[in-house]
Write a structure and sequence with these properties.
With about 230 residues, the protein is α+β, with helices and mostly antiparallel strands. The chain is built from 8 helices and 5 strands. A hairpin with a 2-residue loop joins strand 2 and strand 3.
Length: about 230
């Protein structure tokens, strides 16, 4: 375990930094805000905690269950079966089909695409990393596979989660708000970066930046309007 930690510790900070950047860019670009004018290094790491922890929770469950549910094949046996040989023959056709489907999904107008993309897009980096020495120190192939899978999916998941969260606010589906900010009534709370609170008008026509006040503010949940 110590050998793995010493070998890969250098990648941890830039990896989580990248996850934070992807989330921030995906979220704030929905509102045409260049958040990097206000964000600092700690902001990037802070926002990465939510997408990483929520996704990795399910990965850990999958790792645990896989030890008891996934079939165990001797080395090379899977590729030597009839199905394995057939898939090897049509490998390039499958790659082309994969990229066509992925691009169609990315450029589609369906709002739900951001839920599907991470689990579809992660196969490409996963298959590349799986054939490299990455995490080869882990003897269990199923655990190594799931760790590589989580490593591959988390940056994509983080980007898509930013889009999902922004879309909920932009389309007034789920958000928090203040009754009035800078003479704008029903100001939707977008978030805070650095020393600024950022709000949007209900029709998304105005963006309001306000320095974090000394006194506490009370945000109202949008679903309370339906009660």
């Amino acid at each position: 375990m110590e050998q793995i930690r010493n070998k890969y510790i250098w990648i941890i900070t830039p990896y989580f930094f990248t996850i934070g950047v992807l989330y921030l860019f995906a979220y704030w670009s929905f509102f045409n805000i260049n958040v990097f004018e206000f964000a600092n290094f700690s902001d990037l790491l802070r926002v990465s905690i939510i997408p990483v922890s929520s996704a990795f929770f399910f990965v850990l469950i999958g790792m645990f269950l896989s030890q008891y549910t996934l079939p165990k094949f001797p080395e090379g046996e899977g590729s030597n079966t009839k199905i394995g040989k057939f898939l090897n023959k049509i490998k390039w056709l499958g790659i082309i089909f994969y990229w066509v489907l992925l691009l169609l999904l990315i450029f589609s107008n369906n709002e739900n695409k951001w839920i599907t993309i991470p689990f579809f897009a992660m196969f490409f980096p996963y298959l590349i990393l799986k054939d490299t020495p990455f995490l080869q120190e882990i003897k269990s192939d199923s655990i190594r596979s799931l760790l590589i899978m989580s490593f591959s999916i988390l940056p994509i998941f983080s980007f898509c989660q930013g889009k999902i969260n922004a879309n909920k606010i932009l389309n007034n589906k789920e958000y928090k708000y203040l009754e009035s900010v800078a003479e704008v009534s029903h100001a939707k709370f977008l978030g805070y970066i650095g020393e600024y609170l950022i709000f949007s008008s209900f029709d998304n026509s105005k963006i309001i930046l306000q320095k974090i006040p000394d006194e506490a503010i009370i945000l109202i949940q949008s679903n309370e309007l339906k009660k």
